[in-house]
Amino acid sequence: MLMSDTRAWLEIDLSKISHNVKEIQKLLPSTSKIMAIVKANAYGHGDVACAKELSRCGIDFFGVSSVDEGISLREGGIREPILILGYTPPVHFHQVIQHDLIQTFLSLDYAKKANAWCKEHGVIMHGHVKVDTGMSRLGIITQQQDYRIEEVKEVYHLPHIAVDGIFSHFSVSDGLDEDNKAYTRKQIMLFDQVLKDLEDAGIDVGIRHLQNSYGILNYPDLKYDYVRPGLLFLGATSDDAIDTITHPDFQPIMQLKANISMVKTIQPGVCVSYGRHFTSERISRIATVSIGYADGYPRSVSNKGACALLHGKRVPIIGNICMDQMMLDVTDIKHVKEGDVVTLFGCDGDEKLPIDELTRLAQTINNETFCWMSARLPRIYK
Ligand SMILES: *Cc1c(COP(=O)(O)O)cnc(C)c1O
Questions:
Q1: In whole angstroms, what is the distance from residue 202 CA to residue 205 CA?
Q2: Looking at 16, 39, 130, 257, which residue is catalytic?
Q3: For residue 282, with 0-12 CB atoms within 10 Å meaning exposed, 13-18 middle and 19 or more buried, which class applies?
Q4: Residue 202, CB-side half-sphere exposure with 13 Å CA sphere
Q5: Where in the chain is the domain with CATH 3.20.20.10?
Q6: Ligand 1 center to residue 199 CA distance, Å?
Q7: How far apart are CA 295 and CA 375, in angstroms?
Q8: Going by CATH, does the domain composed of 254-353 fall within 2.40.37.10?
Q9: CA–CA gap between residue 113 and residue 358 (Å, rounded)
């Protein structure tokens, strides 16, 4: 076990990434490769650390959300192709070129701007064109009601940009009711139609990719060149209560831990924390833990039955969660002392506390819970 001299930290077991990658690969046709999405600091897990490990596992393409995230990977020594999935303001176009990044051409107007900028500077910008088959976020609209294939073709024909690939994004690939499955099938159908129309026009579409994590879990048979998981190689889904068609054995790589700073005995009728939402009913042992909402543990789960692990057992978090601290009722645990390690999610001995439990209490998805983990928490890698 890793011990730490900090007040709170994230333990990240990179060695499990290769297991998770293999579990993804087992689902996919042998012709589909993985573009690992490591945006938002790899959902808080550390972009460079994860990308290096993924690269060791044979991953040869990365995706990020912004030019800065692409630069972070380059400065961390990542040499593989990196696709920026989102918007780069034109004032930063030079950085796309300088760091050899691949830009998403998210509309015809935007592609024309990039084209004009490249013409002016005598360079070629590489990119993938995005088509909007149903998410209505980024991409040239290619939906049933408004199918703008001519705009997509125009992007391919702009002379100063190189379109090396094409992609779209699912909006309800996690939905297994008939209506949502039909919607996703429609998105697949539209994407295939776009590919066909481009190929019929003699255009080499380049690399094709469509599936995010749930697109892989629920539509594993699709045969595009790449898939784009973010969550899965981290050993997580959005919520383990969401049903999926396939059930790979993913192993979570992140655990959240903190130290106990003080243990005290309080009499019955004593209030704990801001707002006095917990009052002791018996002589109680209260442990103060050095982690709070400024570290990313959500205050919204206060007084909702959230738990932590201590000495391999579940203990209740009591009263309001503070900015830098929280309190546990450890009356039923023996020999609790300052410096003992508390697990906020992860495992302690045989006891497991999945992040999914915290996520459900906070009424969100694991994607967001990961992103809450603040920069104040050191990432300790195994
Ligand atoms: C974030 C993102 C992904 C990865 O999503 P997961 O659900 O984490 O797999 C894939 N594609 C695009 C365009 C994204 O924005």
A1: 9
A2: 39
A3: exposed
A4: 1
A5: 14-234
A6: 26
A7: 8
A8: yes
A9: 44
Please check whether residue 33 is in contact with residue 80, taking contact to mean a CB–CB distance below 8 angstroms.
Answer: no
Start and end residues for every CATH 2.40.37.10 domain found in the chain: 254-353
Q: State both tokens at 165.
A: 């690939």
**Contact assessment for residue 185 and residue 177, using Cβ atoms and an 8 Å cutoff:** no
274 is catalytic: yes
- Strands of 19-96, DSSP E: 33-34, 36-37, 62-64, 82-84
Residue with tokens 């539209």: 190
Examine the residue annotation and report whether 39 is marked as an active-site residue of this protein: yes
Residue 232 Cα to ligand 1 midpoint, Å, equals 10
Stated pTM of the model: 0.96
Helix (H/G/I), strand (E/B), else coil: 106: coil
- pLDDT (tens digit, 0 to 9) for every residue of the chain, 382 residues total? 445 579 999 999 999 999 999 999 999 999 999 999 999 999 999 999 999 999 999 999 999 999 999 999 999 999 999 999 999 999 999 999 999 999 999 999 999 999 999 999 999 999 999 999 999 999 999 999 999 999 999 999 999 999 999 999 999 999 999 999 999 999 999 999 999 999 999 999 999 999 999 999 999 999 999 999 999 999 999 999 999 999 999 999 999 999 999 999 999 999 999 999 999 999 999 999 999 999 999 999 999 999 999 999 999 999 999 999 999 999 999 999 999 999 999 999 999 999 999 999 999 999 999 999 999 999 999 9
Could you tell me the distance, in angstroms and rounded to a whole number, from the CA of residue 351 to the centre of ligand 1? 31
Q: CA-to-CA distance for 81 and 163, rounded, in angstroms?
A: 14
Is 323 annotated for ligand binding?
A: yes
- Nearest CA owner, ligand 1 atom 8: 230
Instruction: Tell the CATH superfamily of the 14-234 domain.
Output: Alanine racemase (3.20.20.10)
